[in-house]
């Protein structure tokens, strides 16, 4: 009888140990595996996003014109093309070449229109195929519509793209 009680006690202790330690450890292991898989997927999404941004930057660099005057003309045409076919009024476009640095030309687009047209214009400017990089975009609600002010640059061919406005560069 004592042996049976001891065996039963050991069996109860093993069951308690299994329920108290093994099952929570398995749960913790499964949660850690799920977290690792989620982080691996997130890392892969970020890697794809970085590759896409690098392609976009290289497309912008490749589309930049070589000469100073050509760069200003190309930027002016890109700003004008962004408004083509849209209901943007009071359009003002200015561009000028930059003699030094990685920026080939700097320009500004100002216009007023409906929300959809203003956002489409901004989207066209942000498109890699436009050949420009938006440096600043400001939208303001006015009685006549939404006023948009966009400062854009074109990058010299072969120059690295900066992550923000160039130092000392103002319009």
Task: Note down, in words, how this protein is organized.
With 171 residues, the chain is of the alpha+beta class. It has a domain of 88 residues: Alpha-Beta Plaits (2-Layer Sandwich), CATH 3.30.70. Helices cover 52% and strands 25% of the residues. The chain is built from 3 helices and 4 strands. Strands 1-2-4-3 form a 4-stranded antiparallel β-sheet, with helices on one face. The protein is elongated. The C terminus is likely disordered.
Rounded mean pLDDT is 83
Q: Report the biggest beta sheet as strand number plus sense, adding barrel if it closes.
A: 4 strands, antiparallel
What share of residues is helical?
40-55%
Structural class: alpha+beta
**Which strand-content bin applies to the residues?**
15-25%
Number of strands: 4
Gyration radius over CA: 30 Å
Numbering strands along the chain, what is their spatial order in the largest sheet?
Answer: 1-2-4-3
Blueprint (SSEs and pairs):
Layout: H1 2-62, H2 68-83, E1 88-97, E2 103-113, H3 115-126, E3 133-142, E4 145-155
Helix pairs in contact: 2-3
């Amino acid at each position: 009888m004592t042996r049976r009680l001891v065996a039963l006690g050991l069996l109860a202790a093993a069951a308690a140990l299994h329920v108290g330690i093994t099952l929570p450890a398995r749960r913790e292991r499964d949660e850690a595996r799920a977290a690792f898989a989620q982080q691996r997927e997130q890392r892969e999404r970020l890697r794809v996003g970085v590759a896409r941004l690098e392609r976009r930057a290289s497309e912008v660099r490749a589309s930049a014109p070589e000469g100073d005057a050509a760069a200003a003309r190309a930027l002016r045409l890109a700003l004008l093309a962004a408004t083509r076919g849209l209901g943007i009024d009071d359009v003002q476009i200015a561009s000028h070449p930059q003699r030094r640095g990685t920026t080939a030309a700097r320009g500004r687009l100002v216009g007023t229109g409906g929300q959809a047209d203003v956002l489409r214009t901004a989207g066209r400017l942000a498109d890699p195929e436009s050949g420009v990089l938006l440096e600043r975009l400001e939208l303001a609600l006015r009685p006549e519509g939404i006023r948009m002010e966009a400062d854009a640059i074109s990058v010299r061919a072969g120059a690295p793209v900066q992550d923000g406005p160039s130092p000392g560069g103002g319009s």
